[in-house]
Amino acid sequence: MSVIFFLIPLSILFAVAFLFAFIWSVRSGQYEDTTTPSMRVLLDEKLAAKPTSAADNSPNSKLK
Q: Is the CB of residue 14 less than 8 Å from the CB of residue 20?
């Protein structure tokens, strides 16, 4: 029974810590834009560097 007097305040302390962490993350803007990062992964192909010519990057061009 004495363990419960230790666990209840400990659980309240953890709950308050997570509440403060959540409030801090909301105030710092962590939840401002949740859809753009997931869409950026799908649309990132345009930003990738494209090779200038296919002959320069082929594995057989170095063997000639």
A: no
